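Q: What structure does this chain adopt?
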Amino acid sequence: MGNTYHQVYVHSVFAVKFRNAVISNAWKKDFIGVIGNLLNETGCKTYIVNGVEDHVHCLFGLNPAISISDVMRSVKAKSSKWVNESRLLQHRFEWQKGFGAFSYSHSQVDTIFKYIQNQEEHHKKRSFSEEYLELLTKFEVEHNKKYLFEDLM
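A:
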C-alpha cells in the first residue's frame, strides 16, 4: 500500500502520585491545555483532556508510528516538568508510574468524549479508585488490586 491509513482511538487515564488531590482549579485549565498540546507533539490527535484533583483522562487518536507507552511517557514527564517549573505547588509534582489505556471504536467517540467532559460531575458520585476498577473490569483487563495504586509506605 502506498500510504498508511489508521483510526485508533485511545482513552488514557493516569493519576497523581499517591493519588494526592493537588491539581488546583486555579491552574487546571492551563494544565489540561499543556497535556493536550503534548499529545499533539507526539503526532497524536487530541480530542479531549479533562480530570479532577487527583487524575486525568485523555481521548486521542494514536499516531501508528509511536507506541502508547512512548506517548504516555512523554506526556507525563513533560507535564510534570511544566507544573514543577511553573512552581504551582510547594512540593514536587509527580504522576503515578503506570497508566490505563483503553481503545474505542469510532461510533463510541462521542460517548467517551462526553464522559471525559463531565469528570467533575461524575466524581461527585464515585471515587477514582472505583472508576478505574470499573474500567479494568469492563475491558476485562487482568489486574491485582494490591498493585493498582502507589500508596504511601
